[in-house]
Structures are given as C-alpha cells and as structure tokens.
Amino acid sequence: MNAAQVPRKKPIISTGTAAQNRRARYDYKIGPTYEAGLVLYGPEVKSLRLGRASIAEAWAGEREGEMFLFGCHIPEYQAGSFMAKFDPVRPKKLLLHQKQIRELVGAITREGATLVPLEILFNEKGRAKVLLGLAQGKKMHDKRADIAKRDWQRDKARVMRNKGMD
C-alpha cells in the first residue's frame, strides 16, 4: 500500500475547538461569556483531543460553593486499558475565580439566567477550557424573528452576488 491508500485517522486536536454547542445561540440570548478551566482525568483529555465530546445537553451550576459542568458527555477512550474507564457523564469541576463564581451564582439566582457551555477548546498551552455564556431563554417568536433575519441576510447576499455578475 502506498501513502494514498493508507486510511487516515481522525486528526488529534492540539489547539482550537474540541466540541461546540451550536444550538445554544438558537435557544438562548447569550450575554457575557466566561472562560473556565476544566478538571479532567487523563483519558478524558485524550478523548477530547479526538473531538469526541458532546455538550448539547450540558449546563453549568453551583454545588457546595464550586461550579460544575453537568450533562457533558465525554466517551471513554477506546485505546486505553481498564485504568482508562471513567463515568462519561460525571460532573466536571470548573476552575473559576471566587469573584466570578459569586457573580455567576448571583446572576443565576436573581435574574433566572442559565449558564450554558458554548464550546470546549484547547488554548495555546494545550489546556482544556470551556467557554460559558450567561444566557436567557428565547421565546418562540424571538426564534422565528432570528430565522427570518438570517434568511433575509442570505437572500440579500444572493441578490448582491448575482447583481455583480451581470
């Protein structure tokens, strides 16, 4: 077999986005964002680097004075040994400053906001971070307005592109 016939493995992510919650911007109005560190086991990091995480159903909340990420699914690392077994949906501790934790807990309790993970990424140093957004839920009419606005932008771009070709 030559190099062209060798099956390619999924690329390993060293920096950049490992998982993204694209639906969050549709379901919520995103306010200020925060970058938090994640406490992970070794096999979880390997699984993340393969881009195998899901944060579609995840949310962040406070437990005993610390912030945790709930509902984030990081599957077991398949190439690992029996030592690499862990609970894929265990709550993952978030690393934030105490001032940020107080600010977020206050916003959640006062304003009824939700802390939604927008993406999991690796920074320049190779550390796993999660980008959290303080979000307010959208009503159905807000979602319809966003869809109409996006469709109009797409149609406008199409008209401008065709007009330039004539």
Verbal overview:
- With 166 residues, the chain is an alpha+beta fold.
- It is 31% helix and 30% strand.
- The chain has a seven-stranded antiparallel β-sheet with strand order 1-6-7-2-5-4-3.
- Strand 3 and strand 4 (66-70) form a beta hairpin.
- The mean pLDDT is 84.
Q: Provide the spatial order of strands within the biggest beta sheet.
A: 1-6-7-2-5-4-3
Instruction: Spell the H/E element sequence.
Output: EHEHEEEHEEH
The percent range for helix content is 25-40%
Strand content: 25-35%
Radius of gyration: 20 Å
Query: Which spans have pLDDT < 50 for at least 5 consecutive residues?
Result: none
The overall average pLDDT, rounded, is: 84
Shape: globular
Number of helices: 4
Short overview:
This protein has 166 residues and is α+β, with helices and mostly antiparallel strands.
How are the SSEs ordered, and which strands pair?
Blueprint: E1 16-20, H1 24-27, E2 28-38, H2 42-49, E3 59-63, E4 66-70, E5 92-95, H3 98-111, E6 114-122, E7 128-137, H4 140-165
Antiparallel strand pairs: 1-6, 2-5, 2-7, 3-4, 4-5, 6-7
Which key terms come to mind for this protein?
166 residues, alpha+beta, seven-stranded antiparallel beta sheet
